[in-house]
Every structure is written in structure tokens, then in C-alpha cells.
């Protein structure tokens, strides 16, 4: 949602628009001081748990960038427009952490949005060691759907701690 001038907002929308503007202002302030690094594509950065395979190609990428803040925190943005799951369904998609440094044990957790074969929603990601892992249903630990090609879209952003 773009920045909404409060003069264009009706009374019923004022609270939501004002809250959104505060969030946008905060993110702009937060992200403006970063030196973002666009990460070069590497198919080997993407995998899956168990006997499932997550295939991501360079043309599937929307964004993969990170910013290291001090020596302890990495912020990242990841957008995959389309990718393919194959093999035996399993519970986690995996991506190596950004910048080649390991995340602290339980270094970060957050949410991400996804689309997986008509299943659309929010899942949970967590970073620890060399991996960021994506679970579409962290509570039931259910499997990703493996069917056809170009069956997974994913967008995530967040931060995790370094040791």
C-alpha cells in the first residue's frame, strides 16, 4: 500500500491510514540507513527438508538482498515469484542465510506470505545456523504441496542475529 495523504482519507479510514503511514515512515527511516547488497543468484542456496526438492531459477527471483547492521544483525528481503517443489512432500523450504555468515542459534523468527497450489497464507520462518527455514503451517507442521511446476510463490522479510 502506498503512502496515503491524510487529506484523502475518510473519517472511518483515518485510524487505519494513520497507522499504515506510521509503519511506512518507520520502515523508510529504518531501511534508509542500510547499504543493501543484492545477492547474486545461486540455485544451491535453495533446498527443502526430507526428500523434497525446491527448485528456484534465476528468472523466478523478484528480490534477494540483505543489509548487515553492525556486527550482530542482518536484515533481509526475499521475493520468489515462482518456483517448483518435487519429490516426497515435506515440511520445510530452506534457504542459506544471507551474506555467508551463520545465524545465531534461534537467531530470528518471522512471518512470510506464500502461495502453494491454491493454498495461500502466512507461514513462519526461522533462522538458525546456516539456514532460514520456511514452514507454511508451523503449528501442525504439515507438508508443502508437491504438484506440477511453478507451484510456490514466497515473499519474506525480517532480521536475524549473528553470533
Topology (elements, then pairings):
Elements: H1 14-32, E1 37-38, E2 46-48, E3 52-55, E4 61-69, E5 73-87, E6 93-96, E7 103-116, E8 119-129, E9 131-135, E10 152-161
Query: β content, as a range?
Result: over 45%
Work out the number of β strands: 10
Mean pLDDT: 83
Low-confidence stretches: 1-17
Please estimate the helix content: 10-25%
The number of domains is: 2
- Protein structure class: mainly beta
The appropriate CATH architecture of the largest domain is: Sandwich
* Helix count from the secondary structure assignment: 1
Major β-sheet profile: 10 strands, antiparallel
Rg result: 17 Å
CATH topology of the largest domain: Immunoglobulin-like
Oligomerization: single chain
Broad shape: globular
Order of helices and strands: HEEEEEEEEEE
CATH class of the largest domain: Mainly Beta
What is the CA–CA distance across the termini? 35 Å
Overview in brief:
The protein is built from one helix and ten strands, in the order αββββββββββ.
Structure description:
This protein has one helix and ten strands; from the N terminus they run αββββββββββ. The protein is 12% helix and 47% strand. It folds into two domains: 1-32; 37-161, Immunoglobulin-like. Strands 1, 2, 3, 4, 5, 6, 7, 8, 9 and 10 form a ten-stranded antiparallel sheet that branches. The chain has one helix at 14-32; strands spanning 37-38, 46-48, 52-55, 61-69, 73-87, 93-96, 103-116, 119-129, 131-135, 152-161. Mean pLDDT is 83; it is low at 1-17. It is mainly beta and 163 residues long.
